[in-house]
Amino acid sequence: MFHFKLLELESELMARELAEKQVDMSADCQSLLVYVEALIGIKLADPVPKKWRGWLSYRRNKSSLVVSRGRAFKEDSIFGKTIAGLDIVNGLDQANDYRRHFDVSPPPELDHLLLNFADTSPFRLQVWYGENFAPYQLYFQTEADLSYEKILNDAVAEGCVWILTKPKGQVLKDFLANSSRATT
Predict the structure, then answer these.
(1) Is the previous residue joined to 122 through a cis bond, with omega within 30 degrees of 0?
(2) pTM: predicted TM-score of the whole model, two decimal places
(3) Mean pLDDT, 10 residues at a time, over the chain (184 residues)?
(4) CA-CA-CA-CA dihedral for 180, 141, 136, 99, to nearest 10
(5) Burial class (CB in 10 A: 0-12, 13-18, 19+), 158
(6) Helix (H, G, I), strand (E, B), or coil: what is residue 150?
(7) Domain ranges of the chain
(8) Contact, 138 vs 184, CB < 8 A?
(9) Vertex 36 angle, CA 35 and 38, to 5°
Protein backbone atom coordinates (compact mmCIF):
# COMPACT_ATOMS: atom_id res chain seq x y z
CA MET A 1 0.00 0.00 0.00
CA PHE A 2 2.81 2.39 0.90
CA HIS A 3 4.59 1.73 -2.41
CA PHE A 4 1.35 2.34 -4.36
CA LYS A 5 0.74 5.66 -2.57
CA LEU A 6 4.34 6.70 -3.22
CA LEU A 7 3.94 6.00 -6.95
CA GLU A 8 0.73 8.04 -7.03
CA LEU A 9 2.46 10.96 -5.32
CA GLU A 10 5.38 10.82 -7.76
CA SER A 11 3.05 10.85 -10.76
CA GLU A 12 1.14 13.80 -9.31
CA LEU A 13 4.33 15.79 -8.80
CA MET A 14 5.58 14.93 -12.29
CA ALA A 15 2.30 16.00 -13.93
CA ARG A 16 2.28 19.30 -12.05
CA GLU A 17 5.93 20.01 -12.87
CA LEU A 18 5.36 19.30 -16.55
CA ALA A 19 2.27 21.53 -16.59
CA GLU A 20 4.15 24.42 -14.99
CA LYS A 21 7.33 23.98 -17.01
CA GLN A 22 7.72 26.07 -20.15
CA VAL A 23 8.85 23.66 -22.84
CA ASP A 24 10.14 24.76 -26.24
CA MET A 25 7.88 22.45 -28.18
CA SER A 26 8.45 21.15 -31.65
CA ALA A 27 6.00 22.01 -34.43
CA ASP A 28 4.47 18.53 -34.07
CA CYS A 29 3.78 19.15 -30.38
CA GLN A 30 2.03 22.41 -31.09
CA SER A 31 0.08 20.78 -33.93
CA LEU A 32 -1.11 17.97 -31.65
CA LEU A 33 -2.47 20.47 -29.11
CA VAL A 34 -4.20 22.40 -31.91
CA TYR A 35 -5.62 19.09 -33.17
CA VAL A 36 -7.14 18.28 -29.77
CA GLU A 37 -8.49 21.83 -29.43
CA ALA A 38 -10.18 21.44 -32.84
CA LEU A 39 -11.45 18.00 -31.82
CA ILE A 40 -13.12 19.42 -28.71
CA GLY A 41 -14.34 22.49 -30.60
CA ILE A 42 -15.22 24.88 -27.77
CA LYS A 43 -12.59 26.76 -25.79
CA LEU A 44 -12.99 28.34 -22.38
CA ALA A 45 -14.67 31.78 -22.70
CA ASP A 46 -15.93 31.17 -26.27
CA PRO A 47 -19.43 32.42 -27.11
CA VAL A 48 -21.94 29.55 -26.92
CA PRO A 49 -25.74 29.05 -27.17
CA LYS A 50 -27.77 29.72 -24.01
CA LYS A 51 -28.31 26.12 -22.95
CA TRP A 52 -24.97 24.71 -24.10
CA ARG A 53 -23.36 21.92 -22.06
CA GLY A 54 -20.44 19.90 -23.27
CA TRP A 55 -16.68 19.59 -23.50
CA LEU A 56 -14.29 22.50 -23.61
CA SER A 57 -10.54 22.94 -23.69
CA TYR A 58 -8.12 25.61 -22.61
CA ARG A 59 -4.38 26.13 -22.57
CA ARG A 60 -2.23 26.28 -19.50
CA ASN A 61 1.06 27.94 -20.31
CA LYS A 62 1.96 27.19 -23.91
CA SER A 63 2.75 23.52 -23.53
CA SER A 64 -0.29 21.97 -21.86
CA LEU A 65 -3.99 21.67 -22.53
CA VAL A 66 -6.89 20.91 -20.19
CA VAL A 67 -10.08 19.17 -21.38
CA SER A 68 -13.11 19.24 -19.08
CA ARG A 69 -16.88 19.63 -18.92
CA GLY A 70 -18.33 23.06 -19.42
CA ARG A 71 -21.62 24.90 -19.61
CA ALA A 72 -23.01 28.23 -20.75
CA PHE A 73 -22.96 31.19 -18.39
CA LYS A 74 -24.86 34.40 -18.95
CA GLU A 75 -22.23 37.08 -19.13
CA ASP A 76 -24.29 40.15 -19.81
CA SER A 77 -27.77 40.62 -18.37
CA ILE A 78 -28.74 43.32 -20.88
CA PHE A 79 -27.90 41.59 -24.16
CA GLY A 80 -28.04 38.00 -22.93
CA LYS A 81 -24.59 37.05 -24.22
CA THR A 82 -23.43 33.62 -23.00
CA ILE A 83 -19.93 32.19 -22.86
CA ALA A 84 -18.44 28.78 -22.10
CA GLY A 85 -17.27 28.35 -18.54
CA LEU A 86 -16.15 25.39 -16.47
CA ASP A 87 -19.02 23.24 -15.19
CA ILE A 88 -18.73 24.52 -11.61
CA VAL A 89 -20.50 27.19 -9.57
CA ASN A 90 -17.91 29.91 -10.31
CA GLY A 91 -17.39 28.85 -13.93
CA LEU A 92 -18.02 32.38 -15.22
CA ASP A 93 -15.27 33.73 -12.96
CA GLN A 94 -12.87 31.12 -14.33
CA ALA A 95 -13.74 32.12 -17.92
CA ASN A 96 -13.19 35.80 -17.12
CA ASP A 97 -9.85 35.03 -15.46
CA TYR A 98 -8.83 33.08 -18.55
CA ARG A 99 -9.71 36.06 -20.76
CA ARG A 100 -7.45 38.22 -18.59
CA HIS A 101 -4.62 35.73 -19.27
CA PHE A 102 -4.50 34.45 -15.70
CA ASP A 103 -3.49 30.84 -15.17
CA VAL A 104 -6.71 28.90 -14.59
CA SER A 105 -6.02 25.72 -12.65
CA PRO A 106 -8.46 22.88 -13.10
CA PRO A 107 -10.72 22.92 -10.04
CA PRO A 108 -10.56 19.83 -7.80
CA GLU A 109 -14.30 19.21 -8.01
CA LEU A 110 -14.19 18.82 -11.81
CA ASP A 111 -12.69 15.71 -13.42
CA HIS A 112 -10.47 16.65 -16.33
CA LEU A 113 -7.77 15.54 -18.73
CA LEU A 114 -4.37 17.22 -18.87
CA LEU A 115 -2.26 16.92 -22.03
CA ASN A 116 1.39 17.89 -21.85
CA PHE A 117 4.79 16.79 -23.09
CA ALA A 118 7.71 15.03 -21.49
CA ASP A 119 10.87 16.96 -22.29
CA THR A 120 12.71 14.00 -23.81
CA SER A 121 14.24 13.45 -27.18
CA PRO A 122 11.93 12.99 -29.02
CA PHE A 123 9.13 14.72 -27.11
CA ARG A 124 6.48 12.41 -25.67
CA LEU A 125 2.83 13.42 -25.48
CA GLN A 126 1.20 12.46 -22.18
CA VAL A 127 -2.47 12.41 -21.27
CA TRP A 128 -3.25 12.53 -17.54
CA TYR A 129 -6.54 12.06 -15.72
CA GLY A 130 -7.22 14.44 -12.86
CA GLU A 131 -9.88 13.78 -10.28
CA ASN A 132 -10.74 15.59 -7.08
CA PHE A 133 -7.65 15.84 -4.85
CA ALA A 134 -6.24 12.50 -6.01
CA PRO A 135 -2.90 12.46 -7.82
CA TYR A 136 -2.90 12.67 -11.59
CA GLN A 137 -2.95 9.31 -13.32
CA LEU A 138 -0.97 8.94 -16.53
CA TYR A 139 -3.06 6.75 -18.82
CA PHE A 140 -1.65 7.48 -22.28
CA GLN A 141 1.78 8.27 -23.61
CA THR A 142 3.18 8.29 -27.12
CA GLU A 143 5.78 10.00 -29.26
CA ALA A 144 4.74 13.54 -30.20
CA ASP A 145 4.27 12.91 -33.89
CA LEU A 146 1.40 13.91 -36.19
CA SER A 147 1.07 10.34 -37.40
CA TYR A 148 -0.40 9.46 -33.98
CA GLU A 149 -3.46 11.75 -34.29
CA LYS A 150 -5.92 8.84 -34.56
CA ILE A 151 -4.47 7.12 -31.48
CA LEU A 152 -4.55 10.43 -29.58
CA ASN A 153 -8.17 10.94 -30.65
CA ASP A 154 -9.05 7.52 -29.19
CA ALA A 155 -7.15 8.23 -25.96
CA VAL A 156 -8.92 11.57 -25.39
CA ALA A 157 -12.29 9.97 -26.22
CA GLU A 158 -11.63 7.15 -23.73
CA GLY A 159 -10.76 9.71 -21.05
CA CYS A 160 -13.96 11.64 -21.73
CA VAL A 161 -16.02 8.44 -21.65
CA TRP A 162 -14.41 7.58 -18.32
CA ILE A 163 -15.34 10.98 -16.89
CA LEU A 164 -18.97 10.60 -17.99
CA THR A 165 -19.53 6.96 -17.07
CA LYS A 166 -17.14 6.43 -14.18
CA PRO A 167 -18.46 3.33 -12.39
CA LYS A 168 -18.27 3.23 -8.63
CA GLY A 169 -15.53 1.01 -7.32
CA GLN A 170 -13.62 0.84 -10.60
CA VAL A 171 -10.36 2.66 -11.23
CA LEU A 172 -9.17 4.04 -14.56
CA LYS A 173 -6.67 1.23 -15.23
CA ASP A 174 -9.39 -1.43 -14.85
CA PHE A 175 -11.69 0.55 -17.13
CA LEU A 176 -9.02 0.82 -19.83
CA ALA A 177 -8.14 -2.87 -19.51
CA ASN A 178 -11.79 -3.78 -20.05
CA SER A 179 -12.23 -1.36 -22.96
CA SER A 180 -11.20 -2.07 -26.52
CA ARG A 181 -7.51 -1.39 -25.86
CA ALA A 182 -5.28 -0.36 -22.98
CA THR A 183 -3.46 2.87 -23.78
CA THR A 184 -0.50 2.64 -21.45
Answers:
(1) yes
(2) 0.80
(3) 60 65 72 93 95 95 90 82 93 93 88 88 88 83 86 92 82 69 45
(4) -110
(5) buried
(6) helix
(7) 2-178
(8) yes
(9) 65
